[in-house]
Structure formats: structure tokens, C-alpha cells
Write a structure and sequence with these properties.
InterPro entries: Beta_helix, PbH1, Pectin_lyas_fold, Pectin_lyase_fold/virulence. This is Right-handed parallel beta-helix repeat-containing protein. It comes from Chryseobacterium nepalense. Pfam families: Beta_helix (PF13229). By secondary structure, this protein is mainly beta. The chain has a single domain, classed as Single-stranded right-handed beta-helix, Pectin lyase-like (Pectate Lyase C-like, 3 Solenoid), CATH 2.160.20.10. The chain has 3 helices and 27 strands. The strands form 2 sheets. The chain has an 18-stranded parallel beta sheet that branches. The protein is globular and about 70 Å long.
């Protein structure tokens, strides 16, 4: 009995050791005499280690990377420590992906801190400098990220060639000071965004906190769920739902489903807008549903809801429990009156604060 107990006690620290070394610390591949102030570009050595390793822990200090970004691997987890940070070296490119999850599956990113080059960019062309890019990917989770100063979008979710992104989750994330959008969703199914903030977008339209905007009719927007999310102080929209590009190909009928619950905006130019279609000669349309529950739009510098015409609309839209500040209530009423000709769009339980 004592023999077996001794073996058992010996195996405990061994198992704990292997549990502790599951994540490979990228600090180990940095050259001798490496700096810890984010002033030297270590992209090449980091990428090589990522290619050759499994789960990764980033160094516990700021690291400079260039506009090649870091391409992540299928089936791996990437964890940032308390002082980890990736800083983008000023770029001349029209676009970049600091963390590239394109055409990937089963990736988890935790506690990422990314700083783009919006304020130091070397050129004036383009708008596609992304913090995290997720295109044509499946089963990607972004948790507790902090993303600042991207030349384009903080997070971009979309299609790659004919591949639609599926099962993408963003939780407890902050995106601030993007040049274009905090979060863009151009194509995806089963997209979930929870407990997150998207703020201070400015510089290049749309300049929204969240922009749900397909590029063309090959894109999909199905089972998009946004819950307990806020936007603030964006140059244009807090939340923009711009679906007109789904009608570009008149051979395809599209069906969408979007549910947004407990959404708030504060001090963006417009709290939210719904641009569902535009006058055209397309014979096809977009059907489906958009449901917004418990929405609060406060202190918007222009108006809480920006109206766009809804000719030939086939989408059922329900806005439930919409709260605005007292100064904006009349503007909201005017907008709702504009929507009244469209029987598919319903505003319910309006409140002032």
C-alpha cells in the first residue's frame, strides 16, 4: 500500500508540471538581449514559433510587430498575460491583420491587447488595417480583448472566397479609436457578441461602433446575436444595419436573422440606423427578421435613430423597449412617423430618460 501511495505522490507533481507547460511562452524564442519596451520588431521569430508550436502564451511585456501580422494556427489557444501587448510598427500598407484568423478553425484568443497605427500610419490609402481578422473561419472565440487605434476595424468578421464564417464568439471585449469601425460583420452565421464595448470610431466612414454590412449577395447574415453590448462617442453611428448590398445579385433571395438585446449607445452622432434597401430594379429581395430588445440611445449629437427609406422592404423589424433622452424624443417621433408607411417595421414601448 505504501508503495502505491509513494508512486501516486510522485505522479502528482509530474502531472502538475505538464499542466503548467501546456502553453509555450513566446519569450523563449526571442533573441538574446531582447528588449521589453516594444521598440524592436520581433514578428519573424514570433511567427516561426507560432507555426511550430501549439497553444501559445505571449510575452509579459509589449512587443512590436510589423504589418505582416501574426497568422494563427488551427486548433490552438493564444493567451496574453497581464502586461502582454502587441504594438503595430507604423505601416504604409492600405491594410493589415495584426492577428490573422482567416480560413482557420477552432481558435481561442484570450486577453489580447493590440495597438494599431491609426495615429502613426505612413500613408493615406486604404481602410483595411484590422486588429483581428476572421474571414472564412469557424469556431473562433475572442475573449477579454482590448483593441486600440486600428487603421481600419478593430475586429472584422466576413467571407473568404466562397467560405462563410461560422460560430464566431466575441465576449467581454473593448475596441476603441478605430479609424473605420469597432466591429464589422459583413458575412457570417451563428455570430455571438456579448458584454462588449465599441467606442470612439472616427476618421473614415462608416465610423461606427458596430457595422453589420454585407459586401454583396454572396454574403450571409444568419443567427447573429448581440447582447449586453454598448457603443459610445462614435463619429457617425453607434449601430449601423446596412443590408442593401445583399440585393446586388438579383438572382438570389436572401434570408437574414439578427437579434440584439440590451444594446445602448451614448454620444454617437446617431444611436442607430437601419438601411434595409434602396430604390433599384432588382427583382429579388431580403426577407427574415431583425429584433431589437431593450435599446437605450442617449445624448446623440444628431438623432437617436437615423431614417432611411424602406421601399419594397420584406424584413420584419421589431424594436421593443426603446429609451431615448428627453431632448431627443421629438426627433425619435419624427423618425417613427417616417417608418409608419412600412407595416413590417414596429416600434414598441417608447420611453424617455
Amino acid at each position: 500500500m505504501r508503495k502505491y501511495l509513494a508512486i501516486f505522490l510522485f505522479l502528482i507533481p509530474v502531472s502538475l508540471f505538464f499542466a503548467q507547460v501546456k502553453y509555450f511562452d513566446l519569450t523563449k524564442v526571442l533573441p538574446k538581449g531582447y528588449v521589453t519596451d516594444g521598440s524592436v520588431d520581433y514578428t519573424e521569430v514570433l511567427q516561426k514559433a507560432i507555426d511550430q508550436s501549439g497553444d501559445i502564451t505571449f510575452p509579459n511585456f509589449p512587443v512590436l510587430i510589423n504589418d505582416n501580422g501574426l497568422k494563427l494556427k488551427n486548433g490552438c489557444s493564444y493567451t496574453f498575460q497581464a502586461n502582454s501587448k502587441l504594438i503595430l510598427k507604423p505601416s504604409l500598407k492600405s491594410g493589415y491583420n495584426m492577428l490573422d484568423c482567416n480560413n482557420k478553425e477552432n481558435i481561442t484568443i484570450t486577453n489580447a491587447v493590440l495597438v494599431g497605427d491609426k495615429n502613426t500610419h505612413l500613408g493615406k490609402q486604404g481602410e483595411w488595417g484590422f486588429g483581428i481578422s476572421v474571414r472564412g473561419s469557424k469556431n473562433i472565440t475572442i475573449n477579454k480583448a482590448k483593441i486600440y487605434d486600428c487603421y481600419g476595424d478593430g475586429i472584422y468578421i466576413g467571407r473568404l472566397n466562397n467560405k462563410i464564417s461560422d460560430n464566431i464568439t466575441i465576449t467581454n471585449t473593448l475596441v476603441s479609436n478605430s479609424r473605420r469601425n469597432g466591429l464589422s460583420i459583413t458575412s457570417g452565421t451563428n455570430i455571438k457578441v456579448y458584454h462588449s464595448k465599441f467606442m470612439n470610431s472616427s476618421g473614415k466612414g462608416p465610423s461606427s461602433g458596430i457595422d453589420i454590412e454585407p459586401n454583396n449577395a454572396q454574403d450571409e447574415l444568419k443567427n447573429i446575436t448581440i447582447s449586453d453590448v454598448s457603443t459610445a462617442n462614435n463619429e457617425n453611428w453607434g449601430l449601423l444595419l446596412n443590408l442593401v448590398n445583399l440585393r446586388k445579385d438579383n438572382s438570389i433571395n436572401k434570408n437574414i436573422s439578427i437579434t440584439i438585446t440590451n444594446f445602448s449607445d451614448n454620444r454617437s452622432k446617431y444611436g442607430m440606423s437601419m438601411w434595409l434597401n434602396r430604390k433599384n430594379n432588382y427583382s429579388r429581395n431580403i426577407s427574415g427578421s431583425i429584433t431589437l430588445n431593450n435599446v437605450s440611445l442617449l445624448n446623440n449629437t444628431e438623432e437617436p435613430v437615423k431614417y432611411y427609406g424602406t421601399n419594397d422592404n420584406a424584413i420584419n423589424v421589431s424594436v421593443n423597449q426603446l429609451t431615448v433622452d428627453s431632448k431627443s424624443y421629438r426627433k425619435l417621433q419624427n423618425t417613427i412617423n417616417s417608418y409608419q408607411n412600412d407595416q413590417r417595421i414596429k416600434f414598441k414601448q417608447l420611453k424617455t430618460k
